[in-house]
Amino acid sequence: MSLLRPLLVRSLTMVGVFFVVLIMLVLTLGLTGFSDRILAATIGEQLRGERTALAETIRDPDEMEKVLEKRREELEIFYGLSTPWYYRLPRTALRVLTLDLGEARTLRSFDGSNRVFDIVTERVPNSMLLLTTSLIITAAIGIIGGAYLATRQGSWLDRFVSGFAAVSFAVPTWWIGILLILILSIQLRILPSGGMYSTPPPTQPLARFFDLVSHALLPVITLVLVSFGPSIYSIRTITLNIAQEDHVKIARAKGLPESRVRLRHILRVAAPPIVTGLMFGLAGSLSGSILVETVFNWQGMGRLYYDALAGTPDENVIVALTFIFTLMYVVIRIVLEALYVFLDPRVRYTD
Amino acid sequence: MSMASALRELLRSGPGFGGAGLMCLLILVALYVLLAFPLDFGESQWSNPVVWVDNPKAVPPTWTNALRREALPLHRVFEGTEPHTVQMARSGPVHSWRFPLTYASSHPPTFLAVTLADVKYAERPPLVLISLKRPDGKQLRIYRHAVRGPREDESGPFQRYAQTPLRVQLSTDEATVTAAQNFLADEFDLRLNGAQIGGRVDRILFGVPAGDSDEAFAPLTGDYEIIVQAALRAEGDSVGKVRFVVGGAVFGLMGTDSLGRDLARGLLFGLPVALFIGVIAAFMSTAIGTTLGIASGYLGGRADITIQRISDIVANVPVLPLLIFMLFIIGPSLWIIIFILVAFGWPGLTIQIRSMVLHMRTNQLIEAIQSLGASRRRVMFRHILPQITPYVLAQLIFAAPSAILAEAGLSFLGLGDPSIPTWGQILETGFRTGGIYVGYWWWIVPPGLCIVLTALTFMLLALGIEPIVNPRLRQPAS
Question: At A304, is the secondary structure helix, strand, or coil?
Fold first, then answer.
């Protein structure tokens, strides 16, 4: 019971986030007349196609115009252009909610499908691969480094890390990626500059795996490089604050071994705020990944954004991507919030 | 604490001193840019190819020559309005311009170009001739141009090239190629066809045949002279301006991009833009965050719950995808970027301010003021706000870098405001046109460094201010 309530509140907040984004999407599409323009363009395209087909049978131009005009009205009703956007778009939003995302204009999935759902979902694992790898590495470095630094408070290393963390906030992740490409793959030719596999990709599973790793190395290094400083620093600060609390002193006074004090009495208590920090880190890297994937031509959702924006923009893909991005973000957050509630017994009573 | 002592304390801390110094520098440079650059720099110059046509394309900065074993040729522009000498010939006055050029590089120029402007004549059009005098004493005519004569319905005096100057890229001009061909045949007895010469005119004009093969040329260094002659037909005819460009392989302080744009100018203009974005976005989101935070903490009750729920939700919205989406739909505009950054940037501060105000509300001073009958608005803005102002100030400075980074990221995705060049946009063109893969570091590294430097200045300043305004952090020191 006591567990359910905070969990529910947090989940509801995230669902609220989801709907706020959805409403904003609908409002922007509707208020700017963008949705109407797109539908009109679709209808125009279809009519042009039908005109050439009809030209075979109907010779009289006047009659042709009449037939086409009638056809246009039919199509406008069919696509919903005859109803104002504030009736039509909520219905579209509901359709999108069931993951019926429509079709892309020019972009195709790797095996040639033009369904937006296929195009987007096949990219999700690629993005997750990059994100989770870098997040796990960052978290590991952060926890080990932070716990270590907490015992070396005020040392030159401590001061260096806090300065490094401050600098990290001022550095655009994607620019670091570009620099790494410039140095490691253009000048020194150590690592590939982009993509996920060499062309042609190796056929052997093991060789294929190592090929993937070599391509993933630079983007992962980029993501870790920018986030490990703040991660170490925040975990160090959390740990320090807890290490100064009375229960730790008591544990030490009881003569417990230092390793046990650190693990059971400091890190265990520090776990919930650390998880919170990682949650926000995830939020940051999810956004950051859009740019990092773009830089490294990593075939994830972020790169898809770039591809959909460049050249002739693919509206359906962009709408769907924003939607899926938010959905993924919300789902991950709910999972982490749940984890948090289980980890931190205090939440159950205070909320 | 008084302002003066706060300032003294700020300057005493390392980051505070660094931040304040850098900020002064940035503001000075930004002021210079605002005075020296037109406000519509983006449209009138940066995205106007005509401005940059005489610059070499995608070349590194001049100072890189110091790091090179063999110096690359410098970019030289010769311009003349009044003729250097005036002679009288049978056909009429001959105006000439002589441009001395000491050529020291072992690489040929990247291009040669000539521009004529403001030609006036009374009856018969003038003839313009350009010759190159080489250090080996040889001289050749590289260009000959008869200004267009009167049209049938036109009456004198005639004006030519007043609106759009005549510009000729000599390196690819057919007449110049022929001139080079004849020159080689006459002087070196070397006969090459047009295809062998094509694209290597500069190498031929600024070199001598190397001997080992027909197509090899060794550079010829020394004192050259470019002689521009305008054979006029009547007294009073004139050529208003001549401009001769010997294209270099290095340019300016920061080099050029693939359109020949002077990157130093683009980078300079990016500074006030970045500062503006950072300051405006930070100021507005801080104002909203503070107001709502005070209201939430002080008013309590239903207002508190509503504000808390809303800020909880807004704080968790993934901003970047939403920004991309909105910019894509509404169209790239700096104002939209700032608006969205503000609209989603306030909740963090609201939550912090609320908890500070909650503590303060039980404060005896506030209670006393309330019992004296001060209105709620008066309490909030006259008595609570001043107490948290220093803290708010620090947060304001903290908020600026993230806005600058966000704009840079969006510009990098190609969603930047096309009428205003920013550092992110310079990086984007460098990346999109593949400048990164051919190693054009001067195009990629400096804009990023500018972003980092500006963001870091704000960070340092905030780090310096924080211990002063946040008593909790100051305690251990005293």
Answer: helix
**And the tokens for A201?**
């990709």
Residue B1 has pLDDT above 70, yes or no: no
For residue A313, the SS3 value is: coil
- At B400-414, the pLDDT tens digits run 998 999 999 989 988
Q: What CA–CA distances, in Å, run from A136 to A150, A239, A281, B1, B471?
A: 21, 19, 11, 45, 36
pLDDT at B474: 44
Contact A33/B at CB under 8 A: no
**Does the reported pTM lie above 0.90?**
no
Give CA–CA dist B275/B32, Å, rounded. Answer: 14
Range B3-48+262-473 has CATH code 3.40.50.12780: no
What would the mean pLDDT of B140-148 be, rounded to a whole number? 88
Cβ distance of A325 and B318 shorter than 8 Å? yes
When CB atoms are compared, the residue of B328, B437, B455 closest to A318 is B328
Domain boundaries, chain B: 3-48+262-473, 62-246
Contact B247, B206 (CB under 8 A): no
Put residue A112 in one of left, alpha, beta given phi > 0 → left and psi -120 to 50 → alpha: left
- The pLDDT tens digits for A99-137 are 777 777 778 888 888 888 888 888 888 988 888 898 889
- Residue A321: the pLDDT is 84
pLDDT band at residue B99 using 50, 70 and 90 as cut-offs: very high
| A84-98, A219-233, B42-56: least confident range | A84-98
Task: Give the count of Cβ contacts less than 8 A between chain A and B.
Answer: 131
For residue B211, what are its two tokens? 């001997």
**What is the topology classification, in CATH, of domain B62-246?**
Jelly Rolls (2.60.120)
Please give the angle made by the CA atoms of A252, A256 and A262, to the nearest 5 degrees: 70
The answer to whether A241 contacts chain B (CB < 8 Å) is no
Question: Over 70: is that where the pLDDT of A283 sits?
Answer: no
Report in angstroms the alpha-carbon separations of B96 from B121, B124, B129.
Answer: 16, 19, 9
Q: Are B263 and B255 in contact (CB under 8 A)?
A: yes
The nearest CA of chain B is from the CA of A172 a distance in Å of 6
CA distance B261 to B52: 5
pLDDT band for position A147 (50/70/90)?
confident
Sequence-separated (6 or more) residues with CB below 8 Å from residue B324 = A290, A305, A309, A318, A322, B410, B413, B415
Domains of chain A, earliest start first: 123-311 (1.10.3720.10)
Strands B93-103 and B112-121: unpaired
The answer to whether A187 faces chain B, any CB pair under 8 Å, is yes
Cross-chain residue pair A322–B312, CB shorter than 8 Å: no
Chain A residues 285-314 with a CB less than 8 Å from chain B? 286-287, 290-291, 294-295, 305-306, 309-310, 313
Which of B307, B333, B413 is the best residue to mutate to test the A interface, defined by the most A CB atoms within 10 Å of its own CB? Answer: B413
CB contact under 8 A, B409 and A326: no
pLDDT, tens only, A154-185 = 889 988 898 888 888 889 989 999 999 999 98
- Beta-bridge partners for B115: B167, B243
The reply to whether residue B412 touches residue A174, judged by beta carbons under 8 angstroms, is: yes
